[in-house]
Amino acid sequence: MTNPVIRPRRLRTTPALRRLASETRVHPSELVLPMFVREGSESVAISSMPGVVQHSIDSARRAVVEAAEAGIGGVMLFGVPDVRDAIGSGATDPNGILNLATRALVDEVGGALTVQTDLCLDEFTDHGHCGVLAADGRIDNDATLIRYQDMALAQARAGSDLLGLSGMMDGQVAAVRSALDAEGLQDTAVLSYSAKYASAFYGPFREAVASTLVGNRRTYQLDPANGREGVRESRLDIAEGADIVMVKPAGSYLDVLAAVASMSEVPVWAYQVSGEYAMIEAAAAQGWIDRRRAVEESVLGIRRAGADAVLTYWAVELATWLKEDRA
Ligand code: PBG
């Protein structure tokens, strides 16, 4: 005869009780949509990311209005330039695709959501690395910082609300912060991808930005084996003045996310990356997984682990579902 005194199932009895006992919620304002903007008038599908496109500026304008209507917190823009060179000149050109798109979208949505920009050279360099190269072919950290400073000024002047520093160079936050402040751009905020891992899950993104990378990023992005180092990188970025820190990818790094969230005094975000998106889309397309439930659960898990906001390619669709659920 067993008669348990403690019955945790009691709080799971009805939908109303389960709703009341729910510890974690996802709200549209905590979602950020990454968007790719290319040159030219046509948008182009990305085969490894069904449902995601490289926008033209015009289609990006329409998408950002839809995003604002869905109530999400912001969009993170990536540029896909036609022409690339050794130093990524397009990144600092006020008429480069990313800066043009930023101006257009800020103009389109005003303050209805934040317009954020990826601050990294890889989409703009012909060699595809996140920094500039020294004569021996290695990444020149400190020469790259100067490029990031110029890029920050160009993006801030284009109207970006939040600069997403994704290059993993040492000292990048302090370098960008001081350049902004020296030019009177104190109000432009800095999001540092502080714990960014050298991950296989960026695979589809490489198609999304037509990456030219040969080789890998293991001399600057973190070793997937290292959790403590992700916390250290985040601590350094906070000390350098990051307004927000981020862990990326999300799903395979929830332990790092939880550790950073437990020590950080600034908001902690997470990036559910292209490969995480592609895996669920692919399994759902096969009928092997319930797409909506898998998407919701994946983002909920990232929130539960400690993310204050989540960059996800499902941001708009998920926000729409969340509204439906509340109605
Ligand atoms: C680099 C950058 C990458 C992603 C965002 N910024 C690619 C990389 O580091 O190789 C990946 C995002 C994704 O996979 O969704 N600027």
Task: Give an overview of the whole structure.
This protein has one domain (35-326): TIM Barrel (Alpha-Beta Barrel). Helices cover 40% and strands 15% of the residues. The protein has helices spanning 15-21, 57-70, 97-109, 141-158, 172-182, 203-208, 227-239, 254-263, 274-285, 291-305, 315-326; strands at residues 31-38, 44-45, 53-55, 74-80, 114-119, 162-165, 189-196, 244-248, 268-271, 309-311. The protein has an 8-stranded parallel beta barrel with strand order 1-4-5-6-7-8-9-10, surrounded by 8 helices. Strand 6 (162-165), helix 5 (172-182) and strand 7 form a beta-alpha-beta unit. Helix 2 packs across helix 3 (97-109), helix 4 packs across helix 5 (172-182) and helix 7 (227-239) runs parallel beside helix 8 (254-263).
Which descriptors would you attach to this protein?
magnesium; binds ligand PBG; 15% strand; zinc ion binding; 327 residues; alpha/beta; porphobilinogen synthase activity; TIM Barrel
Topology (SSEs and partners):
Layout: H1 15-21, E1 31-38, E2 44-45, E3 53-55, H2 57-70, E4 74-80, H3 97-109, E5 114-119, H4 141-158, E6 162-165, H5 172-182, E7 189-196, H6 203-208, H7 227-239, E8 244-248, H8 254-263, E9 268-271, H9 274-285, H10 291-305, E10 309-311, H11 315-326
Parallel strand pairs: 1-3, 1-4, 1-10, 4-5, 5-6, 6-7, 7-8, 8-9, 9-10
Antiparallel strand pairs: 2-3
Structural class label: alpha/beta
> Looking at the structure, what is the overall shape?
globular
Question: What's the β-strand tally?
Answer: 10
User: What is the overall number of helices?
Assistant: 11
Side-by-side strand order of the widest sheet: 1-4-5-6-7-8-9-10
In CATH terms, what is the fold-level topology?
TIM Barrel
CATH fourth-tier homologous superfamily = Aldolase class I
Give the overall pLDDT as a whole number.
97
Please report the first level of CATH classification, the CATH class: Alpha Beta
The percentage helix is: 40-55%
Bound molecules: ligand PBG
Unreliably modeled segments: none
CATH arch. level architecture: Alpha-Beta Barrel
Distance from N terminus to C terminus (CA atoms, Å) equals: 45 Å
Q: In percent terms, what proportion of residues is strand?
A: 15-25%
The structural domain count equals 1
